[in-house]
């Protein structure tokens, strides 16, 4: 099981839990392959997309706990 934090880089999430793409897409992040997204933390991505990072981390970790 993986435990992600606000400081986790998005590419790390996608490497460990590829199915999480759908969670990022649900918050409006559709360009996960772009250069900026690859180096962004979850917190930075949430800020850009107007999403509470704590809420998103909770959903993401719940998803990851089932892997």
Task: Provide tags for this entry.
5 helices; globular
Secondary structure blueprint with pairings:
Elements: H1 10-16, H2 21-26, H3 35-39, H4 42-48, H5 53-64
Query: Which residues sit in consecutive blocks of at least 5 with pLDDT less than 50?
Result: none
**Global shape:** globular
Structural class: mainly alpha
Regarding quaternary structure, what we see is single chain
Mean pLDDT level: 88
Distance between the termini: 7 Å
- CA radius of gyration is 10 Å
Helix proportion range: 55-70%
What is the count of DSSP helices, taking H or I runs of 4+ residues? Answer: 5
**What composes the largest sheet?**
none
User: How many domains in all?
Assistant: 1
Count of DSSP E strands?
0
Strand content: under 5%
Q: What letter string, H or E per element, gives the SSE order?
A: HHHHH
Overview of this structure, please?
The protein has 67 residues and is an all-alpha fold. The protein has one domain. Helices cover 55% and strands 0% of the residues. The protein is built from 5 helices and no strands. The mean pLDDT is 88.
Brief rundown of the structure:
The protein is mostly helical. Helices cover 55% and strands 0% of the residues. It has one domain.
